[in-house]
User: What shape does this take?
Amino acid sequence: MLNCYRFVQQFYVLFPKDLASDFGFTIKQYDVLRMLVYGFSNDEIAHKMNITSASISAHLKEVRKKLGVQTNREIPLRAKKLFLVD
Assistant: This one.
């Protein structure tokens, strides 16, 4: 069973968007997640995606809920642990 788990981990490292969709993330939610992990602020993410900061906050609220974390600071740690980002 452990070997199967390692294979799945390796597969999803190659295809993180597939894993993201398994968590139920929309494309925008996944993009916001990635940019947050890479250190962009909410305002920077909003500017790059050409949407409002309020929309970013709404996306992050859903991301936190789907990852089971309470704060935005926990998102990068959980995302990396689950192989959602490089």
About this structure: The two ends are 24 Å apart (CA to CA). Residues 25-79 form a domain with the Arc Repressor Mutant, subunit A fold (CATH 1.10.10.10).
